[in-house]
Structure formats: structure tokens, C-alpha cells
Amino acid sequence: MEIKVEKIARLHDGFRRVCLCESSIPEIRFPMNSRGFLHLLSKASAAWLLLCVPAFSQTADLETLVEKSRVAMKESRWEQALDFNTLAVSRYEQKEPLRTFGPQFGAVYFHKGTCEMKLKKWLEAMQSFETCYRDFPNDGATSDRANPFQKIALLKWGEAAMGAGNWELAVSRFTKFISERDKTRDRFSQGAFYINIAVCQYKLARIPEGNENLEIAINNKENFPTPDSGIAAGFQALVSEAIGKGNEQALLDFIEKNRGGLVNGTDGSDRDSQIFLKLAGDALAVGMQRAALAIYQLIPCTAVTTAGVESPEIIKLSAVALIHEKNGNVRGAFAAYQVLVLYFPPAANSEDFLYHLVRTASIVGDMDIAQSCANELCIKFPKSIHRDEIQAFHTKDTATPLAQAIEPVVMPAKEYPQSREFTDALVLYQGRKYQEAKTSFAEVKTRRKSSVFAGFYELECLRKLGDLDGLARARATFVKDPSLGGNRLRQLEIDEIWEDVRRKNWAHLDQLANERALEHLPGDQRAQVAYCQGLAFENLKHPLEALNAYNIAMTADAGASEEIARQASLNILRIHQADPEVQTAIANWGTAAENRESAGFSRLKEAAAVAALFELTLGAGTPLPSEFKVFLNYKGGA
């Protein structure tokens, strides 16, 4: 084949322009194992092979193969594209392609490896990327003959090694890539890169090293950027390794340190909620109750619906009920089942929820609820397998069911403002660093006078810090805006209940709380309403009602509102400590006068369970006050 000298010059000049252009280097995107790698070659980046081949007789044949490969890859016909690349390699690998075509021939191997990764042929892909890197180096090569993929091949080699499960090799290739890459030209997704290293380190049982890289990806989410799916995948690998090694503390430490980044590092989608639910379930299955609760608390609280599906709220509440009862706090399980029956009547497990509510209500001595729910269960489920067991509570053929919650009209919220300052403040807030977050939100509000979101979260920080006087002052100047959406606007209304707490207006507070308790509320708002009502009951001298309300506060959002859960549990312990019947049970413990069927003994067991749960999780790291440590002596009731 004859090619004129002028045409060769034009071809080489075109190839040099493409290779020097940054856009000719494909950007590697998450997920790992190259699924996110450039789905189709741009005509510019693929056509360079057509433009750069020397004027040898085999040029036309190679041009044809490369063009056919490009078209097939563009259309995701990976098998065909691989066949063309394999044919190109087989025809020229014995003809000194490095000398004939220069390092640029390495791109054929790079594209071959890309096709092999798409087809999950990990070992073959590793060999192709290794050949691209090793056999077609750019040492002394002119720009028009250089291999633009040589260093990127190290990165893809590592990803292929991950697909093959060769974690050690993958880490070594990633490390080599970082040390050798051309920082001005080799573009790649840094977030995905550090997550891939983290996953490899977790697979190698190197949790500290994995945490270090996952934290880099989380802390630089906006800079890299790091994809939300990547953060979820990295966290999945950490949980899997921690469970496998029985290292619950390592998982708890990571969540405590990076909670803000984890919450803000996922998009809050149903997919992410399902991932967290599974991980929490896995932790619970191996007895890691603290870890399970910590993971449940990462799931965002949303307004519940009456749809008969297994929503995250239902699964969380069911698990929390199990955890509380397993630890001896039957009243906590009773509280969780009350919420399930009140908020989720059409749920697939509504029969079981009614049964467990009857059972736990009878244990804690709330016979009105036990009887009412037994009647409702027998009427709604006449063939229930639980019918014989609850027959003692079923007294009539009509039921007075618990009132069902009312679904509010919810206004959609606008997206968060996208300023970096606001995002940083929100990470602090989600990380439970409320004092620092309050300062940051105040600064954002000052600089951006229209930032109603910053003003809202400043209010939230004051509330969570317990500064009710400050909350009252800030509310006086805060102007509501419909852009906040239904949940946040309703929180501003719930703040009125906190104002009653500040004023110690207990009777009015009880009235407002009763009204709010009949609305469909997200878990965090249910926890607030129940806690405030518990304060009202306690100050109105209704201790048993206060105990029930405080237990709802502890369980409504799995303890995610840690300031609520912590204080509610301490209030429960204070009520039990002041109970004369509990004191009698303590005095008679282990003596002939001891009556283990008494109400005092049952409440002593409750107190012991709550004290243990405080140390386990409810205290959110705060030590159990010394005056309540005595209850730990009675855990288990033996």
C-alpha cells in the first residue's frame, strides 16, 4: 500500500495532537473492576490508532481491525471487540510491534484488557494490562509514537486483580500507579481509587489500613469527587470484615469517627437504606448489637407511609424491639410494638405485631392495651396461630383498636444549598458535633443572608445541645420558608413543644404531645414528642405513663437522636430509683421475703436492663452515672 509522504506527516501530526490532549486519556470511574470505565471510546481517543500507524504494508489491515473494534466497543459488543483486538495482537505480536509501530501499539493491549474486564475475564485482562505497561514503555519515545495508556494500565491491572480476588497484587499495582503516573496527564477517579484500595485492605484483614483509605475517600467526597455508591461499597467491605473477624469495636470506632461523612456520603436512596438494613441485620445475627444499632442509626428518618411494604422504619423498629427484649427491657419492646401497630396497620407482619403487643403489654401490666389488641387480633385474623395463646385476653367480639396515625400533607423540600461551607457544617451536624456545627451554620447564615437552611440547622443544633433559651431567642427571628419542605416545617412546629418544656408548662405540653402523637412522623420527631410527653407525665406525677413515653423516645428512631435516647434512659432509671416497690425488691433480693412475681421486681429488672443498655449503646459513649450503677447488679433477674 502506498501512502504519500505528505499524508504520513498529516497523520502523525494528528496523532500527536490527540495524544497531547488531556481528553484522550479515559477517566476511570467507580464502581471497581472497571464497570464504570469509559463505556465507549470517543472517536478522538480511538481514532489515534488509525492516524498513527506507520507506512508499512500491514497498516491497512491494522486500521481495519482497530476501526471494527472501536465500533463494537461503542455498541458494547464486547465479545466482538475482543475478537478484533485479539486478532490484531496475534497478527503482530511476533513481528516486533514495538520496533515497527512504537510504544503506541500498547493501546491495542489496553483495549483488549478493557474488553476482557467487561467480560469478567480477569486473568486475561491482567495479562493484557501487564503487557501494555511492561512491553510498550515510553522510554525515549516521541510524542507521536508514545503509549498514552502505559501508566493507566497499572491502575486497570490492579482493578482486574481485584476481580480475580488477588488483593495483594491489586494493592501493589495501585501503589505503583500512584508513584509512577504522570500527574499532568493521567486522569482517574481518585475517590474510586482510594475506595478500591480500602476494599483490598479489608479483604487482607488490614482494617486500620482500609479505614485510612476509606476515610480519605469520604473526607474528600466533594474534591475528588467520591461517588456515593463507592462509599457504600467501601463501608460494606468494612462491616463484612469486622463481622468476619468478630471485631465489633473497630466498626464502632469507625462509625463514631466518620458518622457525618457516612450519612452525607450516601444519597439517602432506598438502595442505600436497604444496604444499611442488610449490614445491620448481619451484625445483629452474630450478636453485635451495638454495631447493629449504630448502623440502623445511619438510615435517614423519613416520613412513614401506610403502604403495605417492608419499609426501613418497620425493619428498624422490629429489630430494636428484639434487642430491647433480648436485653431484658420488655417495656422498650412494648413501646416499639405500639409504634408499629399505630403507624403500620397494613404491614405484612401486622398480625405478629399485634400479637407481640398483646404479649408485652401483659408483661408490663398494661392490661387495657393487652385486651384491646387481643380483641382486634381475633377479629382481623380469625385463623391466627396466636389465637389460643391470647385467648385469656380476648373478652368480646368487638374491639377498640389503638387509634391510627393520620397521614399529614407533606410539602417537598428544595435541595440543600450547594456551598462548600454549608456542606462542611452539615457533616459536622450529622457527625453529632453540634457546637462546632452551630458556629459554622451561623457563619453561613451571616454570609448568605438568604440561607434559610443554615438558619434551620442552627436551630436544630441549639435544640440538640439542650439550649432551650437560645432556641427560643433564635426562633423569634427565624422566618419560615416553604422551601424547607414538610418535615422541616413540622419540626419548627414541634419546637413549640420544646418551648413548653422550657416554660415547664406541663399540662399544655401533654395536650400538644397527644395531638402530635397521632400524626405520621419520622422516627426522630416521634422520639422528641415522646420524650417531651414523658417529661410532662413525670412532672404531672404519672410515673408509669412517663416510663412508657420514655421507652418510645428510646426506640422510635433506634436511638439515632442520641441526646434524646441518653436522657430518656437516665430519666427511666431515675423513676425506677424513686419507686418504693423497686426499693423493696432491692431490699428483699435473695431473701425468703423476695417475691419475683411482684411489680417491684419486674421494674427492677427493667431498670437493670436499661442500665445495661445505657452502657451498651444508649449512652452514646457517656459513662453510666455512678448513682445508677447499682442496677447492674440485678441484670438478668437472677
What does this structure look like?
The longest helix has 20 residues, at 599-618. The chain has a domain at 5-188: Serine Threonine Protein Phosphatase 5, Tetratricopeptide repeat (Alpha Horseshoe). It is elongated. The termini are far apart. It is an all-alpha fold. It has helices at residues 5-20, 43-52, 59-74, 78-92, 97-101, 106-118, 122-135, 152-163, 167-180, 190-203, 207-219, 228-245, 248-264, 270-285, 289-296, 312-326, 330-343, 350-364, 367-380, 420-430, 434-447, 452-464, 468-477, 485-503, 506-517, 523-539, 543-555, 562-577, 580-587, 599-618. The relative contact order is 0.05. The model is unreliable at 1-57 and 303-308 (pLDDT under 50). The protein contains 30 helices and no strands. Helix 6 (106-118) packs antiparallel against helix 7 and helix 18 (350-364) packs antiparallel against helix 19.
User: Which fold does the CATH topology of the domain at 5-188 refer to?
Assistant: Serine Threonine Protein Phosphatase 5, Tetratricopeptide repeat
Please give the count of helices.
30
Shape-level CATH architecture of the domain at 5-188: Alpha Horseshoe
Low-confidence sequence ranges = 1-57, 303-308
Largest pleated sheet: none
Outline of this structure?
65% of the residues lie in helices and 0% in strands. It contains 30 helices and no strands.
SSE map:
Elements: H1 5-20, H2 43-52, H3 59-74, H4 78-92, H5 97-101, H6 106-118, H7 122-135, H8 152-163, H9 167-180, H10 190-203, H11 207-219, H12 228-245, H13 248-264, H14 270-285, H15 289-296, H16 312-326, H17 330-343, H18 350-364, H19 367-380, H20 420-430, H21 434-447, H22 452-464, H23 468-477, H24 485-503, H25 506-517, H26 523-539, H27 543-555, H28 562-577, H29 580-587, H30 599-618
